Amino acid sequence: MTVDPVETQDPDDLKTFHSAPVARLRADLALALRAAAHHGLAEGVCNHFSVELPDASGRFLLNPRGLLWQELRADDIVMVDAQGAVLAGRHPVESTAMFIHAAIHRIARQPCVLHTHMPHATALTLTADRALDTRLSQTAMRFHGRVAVDARYNGLALDVAEGERIAGAMRGADVVFLGNHGVVVCADRLAHAYDDLYYLERACQLQLLALASGRPLAPVDEALAARVGAQTLGERLQSELFFEALRRTV
Predict the structure, then answer these.
(1) CB burial class (10 A; 0-12, 13-18, 19+) of residue 163?
(2) Beta partners for residue 5, in sequence order
(3) What pLDDT score was predicted for residue 14?
């Protein structure tokens, strides 16, 4: 189902949409989507990234239906409310996006929500373990203690209950593997969320390559994995430098 923009958009919503802070957020969101396409994390015109407005209004920005991620620009981003109404923007949105993203913003209180079917992370959701082993590569250790699993695949997210179940499964985690489906990565800033998304896929790729070797895996102990994870999260400047490098090059 498609949610179309309202014919007469509220002047206050339009003023917010075109304000300098929201225009910057729209530019950052479009950049994150183009970067994801550049890094091979996109799947057709499916999946969505969203970022909540910082005014605690429940409104958030979202990529629209039907556009490839690599073609998205700030003017293509739409603004929606928690009920799924398109408040500003020139494109319709996909209802499945609303059911997942609105619930995570509302229940898990996550400002930035990135949902993908990126191949290596999704491949791990098809296994009995369902998720990344955060004791393996150094890259995986950055996610130690941050991963949840929603193993109960129930078809397309076509109602509110599906998004609420996913949000409830997070329980404080900011990365959730969705069984037989894909992943969701959350953060308080887009630069941090995109950095995590990129490195999550790299960590999953390394795990699958190691499994393909047929040799036994050699995880580190929990305490070391936790220490490396804390060290990585203590250096978030690297995430911002990466995002700015993408701004210059993508």
Answers:
(1) buried
(2) 86
(3) 96
Q: For the segment 32-65, what is each residue's pLDDT rounded down to a tens digit?
A: 999 999 999 999 999 999 999 999 999 999 999 9
| Cα dihedral 18/22/25/30 (nearest 10) | -20
Number of C-beta neighbours around residue 135 at 10 A = 18
Among residues 7, 192, 214, which one has the least CA distance to residue 90?
7
2-249 topology per CATH: L-fuculose-1-phosphate Aldolase (3.40.225)
- The reply to whether the predicted model has a pTM over 0.85 is yes
Give per-residue pLDDT as tens, 91-124: 999 988 888 999 999 999 999 999 999 999 999 9
